[in-house]
């Protein structure tokens, strides 16, 4: 996976996933988000870097759909979130997003191994950790 920066959309896998989400009919987008999160959640600590990247992007879309909070300034953020075409989020999707982020943050995940000893490791962990916190806070 080519990574350009530490944001949820700043890598090849997330950008490709976002393109697919953006191009999909509105009625199919929630399922695309669900699948990306489910793959990571089911893999748990064995989630690959590519699946983790897609899950982080999907979790960021979930957060934006819930809160309307601005996303990181990335040209790869799916524009559908900014044009009123957000994903419908229920408790199950929100819980799945948190589970997926937990898998991404696990010590043995492919995503964590990819960032190990990188100069931006702490920043990447902080961004994904904050995403998890914000998702959890919306559940309260």
Automatic annotation (TrEMBL):
It holds the Pfam family DUF4259. It comes from the Bacteria. InterPro entries: DUF4259 (IPR025355). This is DUF4259 domain-containing protein.
């Amino acid at each position: 996976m080519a990574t350009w920066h530490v944001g949820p959309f700043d890598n090849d896998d997330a950008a490709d996933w976002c393109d697919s989400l953006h191009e999909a009919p509105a009625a199919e987008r929630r399922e695309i988000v669900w699948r990306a999160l489910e793959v990571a959640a089911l893999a748990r600590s064995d989630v690959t870097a590519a699946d983790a990247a897609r899950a982080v992007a999907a979790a960021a879309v979930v957060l934006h759909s819930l809160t309307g909070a601005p996303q990181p300034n990335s040209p790869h953020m799916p524009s559908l979130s900014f044009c009123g075409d957000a994903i419908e989020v229920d408790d199950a999707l929100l819980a799945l997003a948190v589970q997926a982020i937990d898998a991404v943050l696990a010590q043995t995940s492919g995503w964590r191994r990819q960032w190990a000893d990188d100069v931006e490791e702490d920043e990447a962990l902080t961004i994904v950790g904050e995403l998890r916190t914000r998702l959890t806070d919306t559940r309260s």
